[in-house]
Amino acid sequence: MVGKFIFSRVLTGVFVLFAVATITFFLLRTLPGGPFDTEKKLPPQIKKNIEAKYNLDEPLWKQYIIYQSNLARGDFGPSYKYIDRSVNDIIKETLPVSVELGVISLFIAIGAGVMIGVVSATRPGGVFDFASVAVATALVSVPSFVTGAVLIYLFSVKLRWFPAALWGGPSHIVLPALTLAAGPAAYLARLVRASMLDTSKALFIRTARAKGLSGFKIVTKHVLRNALIPVVTVLGPITAFLVTGSFVVEYIFAIPGIGRFFILAVSNRDYPLVMGITVVYTIILVFANLIVDISYVILDPRIKFDKGGI
């Protein structure tokens, strides 16, 4: 049954990947301007030769077939702007940087978010609960570029504890990781708090208290475990977002990650690079959601891989 479920999810993921690649391909072609349109116009013959080299002189339907056939082989094609570099090479160089930053930010977001949410839920109405809710609401509302600018001003300009930009040793990771994790951590803290308060009112929690179970055991074994189910639901998109890195955060801290290259690719009309990064993001998102679906059963055995369950 589990194998059948995974197989169906993989098929769904393949369809989603195909749909995203198709939609992105045609949307890029609707943007004004082309990849080789510059302020100083190229001679017509040179522009014609360049377009022929990249099959841009072919009809749109033929360009689409060529792209899909290359994509099926895992070939994203050459970059239009980075001469003698393929999209595959650029992704291989930049994706590990974004993944490293994203994984560290993910651990920070989950650890801080769950811990703050649990403490707030166990002492509702207290000083810590009020302060944590206020801070979490502010962090969710504030854009990441504002959070990053504040952290740079405090810890780089004033205190000089961490470097303000670039990518090197462990000290370079601290500020961008905190900036990237701040919003998701605040969101998870609010979600864990609300979910635990709602779960603590359930009938089976009252029964556990009537049996004389300790407060710690009730919170850890019953309340927290059931309260994490809605949290797991949002971990898929959050994981994909953090692991692939934030466009804004990578741009602010001058991190050579895949997100920064994506911004440059869009502004440069580098179609193959935009398509390649979009496909990679889609694969990560589909995989993260698959892991989330499987995690449901681990957290709640009542959920089954059948028609009545997942």
Word description of this protein:
The mean pLDDT is about 80. The protein has 12 helices and no strands. It has helices at about 1-30, 45-55, 60-70, 85-120, 125-140, 145-160, 170-200, 205-210, 215-245, 245-250, 260-270, 270-300. It has about 300 residues and is mainly α. The protein has a domain at about 90-300: MetI-like (MetI-like fold).
Overview in brief:
The chain is an all-alpha fold and 310 residues long. Helix content is 75%, strand content 0%. It is globular.
What is the CATH H-level superfamily of the domain at 91-299? MetI-like
Number of DSSP helical runs: 12
**Count of individual beta strands:** 0
**Run of helices and strands:** HHHHHHHHHHHH
What is the general shape?
Answer: globular
Give the helix proportion (percent range).
over 70%
| Average residue pLDDT | 79
Largest sheet: none
Spans of at least 5 consecutive residues whose pLDDT stays below 50 are none
Q: Using the 3D structure, state the CATH architecture of the domain at 91-299.
A: Orthogonal Bundle
**First CA to last CA: what distance?**
11 Å
- Radius of gyration equals 24 Å
How much of the sequence lies in strands comes to: under 5%
Structural class: mainly alpha
